[in-house]
Structures are given as C-alpha cells and as structure tokens.
Design goal:
The complex is a heterodimer of chains A (about 230) and B (about 425). Chain A is mainly alpha-helical. Chain A has 7 helices and 3 strands, in the order ααααβαβαβα. In chain A, strands 1-2-3 form a 3-stranded parallel sheet. The chains are: A mainly alpha (about 230), B alpha+beta (about 425).
Chain lengths: ~230, ~425
C-alpha cells in the first residue's frame, strides 16, 4: 500500500506530520462567559478552529445528499451574503471611556468610517452587528456590557478597542477593572493603542470584514453552508 | 461551569461582582438591594401614577456610563437617582502606588477630553512639594497647549449638546476643529488624546516646526470657523427654545453646592481660578471672564451653552498672546531622576474646561505620594442633576444634564 509516494498512505503521513503541536492552534478557554448553546463557543474541546478542518466532516456535508449536484450554488450564495455583511457593519453606539472619543472621531468628518459602510451607530443593540468595546471595562460595567452583547442578534462580532480592553493596559493593576474583555466576551479583533488612532480602528474594522469574508470570525454555529433543519 | 486550571487564573474569575449568564437581568431590579437609607426607601416607593424609567448605563445621550433611575409621572420627572461607579478605575490608589513621574500617566485619562489639565494640577502640586521653579518658556507652553485643549473640549461640548437634543450636524463640524487641534498637539506630544506631556519642572519637549505651522494655519481661520459653527445652532429656533428656561441655577445655590467653572459663571458669579487664585503665567495675560445669567433667577441651560462659546474666543485671545510673548529658554528645570520630596502637603488647582480641578497631595518622604486626593469638577456638578432635572419633562433631562457637561471618567475616577 505505501509503496508509491503519492499513494493514499503517503498522504496520510503528511497529515500526521502536519498535526504536531506546533501547528495545532492554541485554544484559550473562555471561562467567565458561556453561551446557552453548547456548541456555540466551545471552551473545552473545539472540534475544529479553521474552516479547512471542516472539509469532509459530517457537520458540513450533512445535507450533501439533499443538495447533491447543487452544492456549488449555496456556497456562492454564502459568499454574496458575506460580502454584504462585511460591507455594512453597523456598530453599537456604546462607549465606555476615552476610546469612545476616538471612536466618534473615526465616525465623523475627517476619518469617515461611512466610506466602508461602518457608520450608522445604532443606539439599540437589536439593530447592531458589531460591538466596539471602547474604553476601560470595570467590574461594575461588565454585567451590563455582557447583557448588551446578549441582546445583539446573530451573527455578531466584537472589536476590542484600546489597551484596556485588550489586556488591561494602564489600569491593569487596578482593583476594579477587568484585564481584557476577552474574560467576559468573545473577541474577534483586537485594536491596541492607548487610545488607538481612528485610522487604527478603521483598520481593525477592515480586518474584521476580512474575517467575515473568510468565515473565521465569531459565528453562532460552526457550520458553513445552508443550514437546513434535519426534518425538512 | 468550572474554570480549567493551568491556563492562568485571575481573581475576577471568582469575582461575584461579575455577572454570569444566569444572573444577567437581575441587576435591573429596583432597588437592587434592600433599601439602606430613608432617602432610598422614599425614592423606591411609588405613589399613584408614578413609574420608574431606567436610563443608562449604556445610553447614547449620557456623557459616559452613568445610570439614572427616573421616577416619572406621565411626562414629568418627579424624582431621580443617579447611580455612579460604572467607570471607577481606582485612579487615586493607582497614583498612590506610582512614583511621582508615573502619576502623570495614571491621571491623564481622568477627563479624557481635557487631559492636559489633569496633568497640570498634580504637576503643580508636586512642584510645590519639591520647591521647583518652572522655566518661563515651559509655563507659556503649558498655557498655550492648555488653552488649545480648552477650545477642543468646548467645541466638542457644542457638538454633544446638539447631539443630545437630536441634532447630528454640529458634531460633524465640532470634530473637524477638535481633530485639527489634537493633531497639532500630537505633533508636539506624540499622542492624540492622552498626551502625557507635562513633567515635574516643565514640559516634555520644546515646540517644533510641525506644531507651529499647524497652529499658524489653524489660528488664521479659527475665529471665522468658530463664528460659522456657532451660527449652526445659535440661530436655530428649535434649539434655543428647548434650551431656554430649563435647569435654572442661581448664583447663591451654585456657591452653596460648590459649583465652579463655566457652570458658576453662567449662574452670574465671576469665579475663575485663573483670576481668583492665579497660577502659571495667567497674571501676565490679558483676557476677560465671560459671565452670564446675572439676573436674580440665575442662568439656564442656554446660558451655560453660550458661555462656553464665549470662552472659546477668550482662549483664542490667550493663545495669540502666548505666541507673541513666548520667551526663549529651557523647557525643563534641572531635576534629579528620583524624587523624594520632604514630608508635607500641597494643594494645587487649575481651571479646567469643566471647572476647578485640584489635587491634594501628602508626601511622606518616599518617592511615591502617600495620599493623593483628586477634586474633580464634574463630580460636584453631578450633584446639581438631582436639583435641576426635577420637575422637567423627560425630553428636557438630557438638555439639562448635557449643559452641565460632566465627564464620567472624572466623576467615577
């Protein structure tokens, strides 16, 4: 079986070599905040972390039999939907501290985020796609912030703006702050800086668009393709 | 869910103050705890026709994360209860655990739209403790950059004021001016918002070419642009009618409540720290103190709004004089790296865009302050909210509160 170098066994060897500790992604479990859905943010043992791991898994191909030869069509439709999503990211109007001013600066005349479809800051979390956490998150504010996040409809993403939200920043030593919002929320993009320039925030949002296009961001269910219920 | 071990642990994981999924929603019960004082018991008991309306902590209209529980009867606000502490970062304790140089970087995010003033007061009090003589050029640079930032803060106030009343256009114009000012300060200090520029005994770095050329550009059109921006709102009948005759504050009440800054000057009391307790080179400079609301009824929200616009003109005057009188010389005093002032106490106050900002420092002879009390004007002005918002319509509460111009970073420290 393993005689020819391009035979099936040789390919298995390559996969085994690639599966070493170096290439496996580092998974930091989210200990404080967990979703109601057991499959949403797998903090214990995620089945996969990249889309390429999904190829050939039953999770993705569960409705292949039904779609059969049409499987290319929903894939392309997904791409179109993703393009729409990445080009009209509506942030939630929620500022906590200093970074909120720079977030407003990014939204107003000089650095006009509207050019990339990121402008309409929604006052209601039910209309927002992105939660830009701008400013120090204190222990008292953590509950309301998580509640805002819970109220946002899926799909939704989170951008951590500023050093305080990335790691604690200059208030890391304080008794009343949370050292990085990834202790309470799943974060897609980190924008460091104290505060970051508005251009930095715009760059982070563009990176988020890239994540959305490649389906690497935060998703409600780690499934791609048409989500058809089993009994249909 | 149990926290896995071996991947780093932090106290906040066990912190009962952080709400988990199951607890979310419980905090909104009113009151969130058994009432502790008579005032709470009175507030949280409803009479016929009354109801509670929760505003905040995430609300686009508040200047930061403030939660106000309004007790309303129809459209009237009967009573209200502000809930603070959503941005409490423990700045005072952090300052007391930093050495004297590091205090500057810990304190300047306090009021993030006017952070140079947050550096100015502690630096002045440390200079008193250390008996440092600041070079005159450094003092002029401090006044110059401070007044620039005062303009940035006041034009932002104008935009926010309109935004809180539902007008979106003025903030777009405000941010043009503000971005221009912070960009020129970034050319000088390296940062757009939290400058970390003042040092004990001077400032960090002399004026450079890019700053001066940007400043010259901006000064050539500042007044014209300011007048144009004023015209956006001051000639708007809806705006003026909504602002007039709400939130009246008279001078006696203002003095009794410890109000300072533009809010007391709009109540008819000409109190300005730059004139009342002169510091830096302000005695050498020529500027007026605008006063409004001198009648017996005091000033309303419109007066507080207009007074800040008057102050912008005065600040432009001060900047002009600073540029003409700027002396040559060093910008830093010669000081040792490690500072151990003699045991003692010092109080220094500056006129920040929101009022009297002061720090009271106790030194015990080590390289860290033993105690550092921060007096913030926004905290004092928030006391007025309960007095001025009462018996107004719900729609007017934000017009009153925005005209006081509080910043939550300074209130919660």
């Amino acid at each position: 079986m393993a005689m020819t170098p391009d035979g099936p066994d040789a390919a298995k060897d390559v996969v085994a070599a690639g599966g070493s500790d170096l290439t496996t992604p580092i998974i930091v479990p989210n200990t404080l905040w967990t979703s109601d859905r057991p499959g949403a943010y797998l903090s214990t043992s995620p089945a996969f972390t990249h889309l390429r791991d999904l190829e050939g898994s039953a999770l993705v191909n569960r409705d292949t039999a039904r779609w059969g030869q049409l499987e290319v069509i929903p894939t392309k439709a997904d791409l179109v939907v993703d393009l729409i999503r990445m080009n009209s990211l509506w942030p939630l109007l929620s500022g906590l501290a200093c970074c909120a001013i720079e977030m407003m600066s990014a939204a107003t005349s000089k650095n006009d985020m509207d050019r990339w479809g990121m402008f309409p800051f929604r006052a209601s979390p039910r209309q927002a796609d992105v939660l830009i956490v701008a400013g120090t998150l204190t222990t008292k504010m953590a509950g309301p912030l998580v509640r805002l996040w819970e109220q946002m409809p899926e799909p939704k993403w989170c951008v951590a703006m500023g050093d305080c939200t990335c790691s604690g920043g200059r208030y890391k030593r304080s008794y009343s702050t949370i050292e990085g919002i990834d202790r309470v929320l799943p974060v897609d993009v980190y924008v460091p800086g104290c505060p970051p320039r508005p251009e930095g925030l715009i760059y982070g949002m563009m990176k988020l668009g890239q994540l959305i296009k490649e389906r690497r961001g935060h998703w409600p269910e780690h499934a791609i393709g048409p989500n058809v219920p089993e009994d249909v | 869910m149990t926290a896995p071990t071996g991947l780093g642990h932090h106290a906040s994981q066990d912190d009962p103050r952080i709400m988990l999924d199951g607890q979310i929603g419980q905090y909104e019960q009113v009151p969130p705890y058994p009432t502790r004082t008579e005032r709470e018991a009175e507030f949280y008991s409803l009479r016929d026709g009354e109801m509670f309306l929760n505003m905040g902590p995430q609300h686009p209209s508040t200047h930061g994360v403030l939660r106000v529980v309004l007790k309303i009867n129809g459209e009237n606000v009967v009573d209200l209860d502000p809930v603070l502490g959503y941005l409490h970062r423990g700045v005072e304790k952090l300052c007391e655990n930093s050495d004297y140089h590091h205090v500057i970087s810990q304190i300047d995010p306090l009021e993030y739209v006017s952070s140079l003033f947050m550096e100015w007061a502690p630096v002045m009090s440390f200079e008193q403790l250390l008996d440092v003589k600041v070079p005159r050029r450094a003092e002029y640079i401090r006044v110059l950059t401070g007044e620039l930032l005062r303009i940035a803060s006041h034009v932002l106030f104008q935009g926010w004021m309109a935004l809180d009343l539902g007008g979106l256009a003025p903030i777009l114009y405000s941010f043009i001016e503000r971005d221009e000012i912070v960009e020129m300060l970034a050319a000088l200090t390296g940062q757009r918002m939290l400058f970390n520029y003042f040092r004990i005994g001077g400032v960090n770095g002399d004026l450079n070419h890019e700053f001066m050329s940007r400043l010259g550009d901006w000064m050539s059109r500042a007044l014209v642009q300011h007048e144009a921006n004023i015209g956006l709102l001051n000639e708007n009948e809806i705006f003026v009618r909504r602002m007039r005759d709400i939130g009246r504050l008279d001078g006696e009440t203002a003095k009794r409540m410890g109000v300072s800054g533009p809010n007391i000057r709009a109540a008819g009391v000409p109190f300005d720290v730059r004139r009342a307790h002169p510091y830096s080179v302000y005695p050498e400079l020529e500027f007026d103190i605008p006063v409004r609301g001198t009648g017996p009824a005091g000033g309303d929200s419109l007066d507080r709004y207009l007074l800040r616009l008057d102050e912008v003109r005065e600040s432009i005057r001060i900047i002009d004089q600073c540029l003409h009188n700027m002396p040559d010389g060093p910008v830093m005093a010669r000081l040792p790296r490690l500072m151990r002032p003699r045991p003692g106490r010092a109080w220094a106050a500056v006129e920040s865009p929101r009022g009297l900002f002061g720090t009271y420092v106790i030194s015990d002879g080590t390289d860290q302050p033993f105690r550092m009390k921060i007096h913030d004007p926004s905290f004092v002005h928030l006391q007025l909210v309960g007095m001025l918002m009462k018996n107004n319509l719900i729609a007017d509460t934000m017009a009153v509160m925005a005209s006081l111009d509080p910043v939550m970073g300074g209130i919660d420290k």
